[in-house]
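Exercise 7. Given the encoded structure of a 66-residue chain, write a plausible sequence.
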């Protein structure tokens, strides 16, 4: 975590094992490894915003596999 960041506000800071559990449980809309670290978008956050009638715009990093 960088100075000034707050868990659950700026990002969700979880262990590698927790993140892998999220992947296995389908709790992420997308995920990738960026500079050796997992990054992803939790499905629950997006679904909650849509349920409130809030528009959701996501900026995704598209990665190709060889």
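Solution.
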């Amino acid at each position: 975590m960088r100075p000034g960041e707050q868990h659950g506000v700026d990002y969700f800071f979880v262990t590698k094992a927790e993140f892998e559990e999220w992947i296995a449980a389908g709790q992420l809309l997308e995920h990738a490894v960026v500079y050796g670290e997992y990054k992803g978008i939790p499905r629950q956050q997006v679904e909650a915003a849509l349920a409130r009638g809030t528009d959701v715009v996501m900026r995704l990093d598209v990665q190709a596999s060889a």
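Remark. The radius of gyration is 13 Å. Students should compare their own answers with the one above.
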